[in-house]
Amino acid sequence: MLSSVPQQRSSSILSLPPNTISKASLSAFSSQLYHFNRKLIVKKNYQGFLINCALAKVKNSPSPNPDILVKERHKYFDEVIITVRAGDGGHGAILNLPSQSGSAKSVGIFDKARTKKKASYKRDFDGSLILPLGGHGGDVVIYADESKDTLLEFHKKSRYNAKRGGNVDAMGVFSSQTRSGLAAPVLRIPVPLGTVVKQKRGKLLADLAQPGDEVLVAKGGQGGISLLELPEHRRNKMMDLTTNILRDDNDKVLAVGQPGEEVSLQLILRVVADVGLVGLPNAGKSTLLAATTLAKPDIADYPFTTLMPNLGRLNGDPSLGAGQFSSAATLADLPGLIEGAHLGKGLGRNFLRHLRRTRLLVHVVDAAAEDPVQDYRTVKEELRMYNPEYLERPYIVVLNKIDIPEAMERLPNLTEEIWKIGCDVMELQNDVTSRREASHSTSDGDQIDIDSQEKKVKTIEEYQRPLAVIGVSVLKSIRINEMLKEIRAALRSCQ
């Protein structure tokens, strides 16, 4: 876009002496430019033209500042995009056979023995020569490590390069001492348990849920081969020993190592836990985790104290004897949900992805709140809108803070109202069975209507009831053992 701007007001005006502009000068200047729109501006006291570049520079997404990583860790700890590149293969070599012409005159016994001795080369099982190869480039492997818990370190370093293979160490002459290039070591990148590895375009590569799980994400390049450079009268004779003979200059490309793969990966962390604690902010989830496990989450009297999932290990049932060690479970304390979290209110609901691996949900409800039943319905509705499968999992409801007299008085009424939300498991199974039986005795048109009814959106009343509703006071340690007994019983039923 061109405009006439006074020379003293624009730094992009190129001033030219008056009466000196010609087609030759303009063409010489335009030859140094790409596709620019230019227009000559002629005024009374000066002549010039304004040039605006039409090329746009690609803007890369800036990496978060280290200070932001510390202050807003909850936004970056469970998802990151990295780039990995495997190592290139080492180069081969163009080799010559040593000269076999000995000296005509031999002096002494040692010289005769040296001239009669033939060079010994490495040979394959069929007698062919084994020529050295360039080293294999380093592969890139991502594996699950129990000592890692977040993906924050990948925001500081988002590119990983493996080493290249070694070249053939030769001075141009093939001998028995010529060795192949060294293979580069494998680059192993540790990630937390539960990390899902995807390509940047969405293809799933691996789900690293168990310790020691690993996946090869980029293969190193193959090393180049070595070629023998021989005169024409010796090529036919050496063809019986090896086919790696340089015929023309185009064959030299075979000695160059192949490049390693480079891919962009998306790492998504899904916490590996057996039990997930959900509820509104300040319901007592972190306090419950600290009271039942050795975890030490942040606890305060303001909302959204928990910004990242906290994990704790729940001991097994002591009544099982030696089996208590195999009945231990992992608890995950998730940040608080509020109404409208699916619209981005509060901390949003992206952290609900960490519930996908859980077998049991524990709804923690503040029994001393203004409307505990409505709080319970709010959390269930947010879970339904995020993933309806979460409501199909077994769960128990914990009414916390019953040490407050008001909460203790209305505990029976709260328990009864919560029991009314939902239906029994047997009723759900009978309903599904009756629909299937009715589908066999109907026509095709009616079958479509029945299928559409089964796929309709359910309300929270159409899902199963909780396995148990129990009132506790985590802070005062009231009925904690009864709550743990219900949690362990529910876990056994989920196996």
From TrEMBL:
Annotated Pfam families: GTP1_OBG, MMR_HSR1
GO biological process: ribosome biogenesis
Domain of life: Eukaryota
Domain Obg: 74-272
Domain OBG-type G: 273-492
Keywords per UniProt: GTP-binding, Nucleotide-binding
GO molecular function ontology, one term from the record: GTP binding
One GO CC annotation: mitochondrion
Name of the protein: GTP-binding protein OBGC2
Naturally occurring in which organism (per UniProt): Salvia splendens
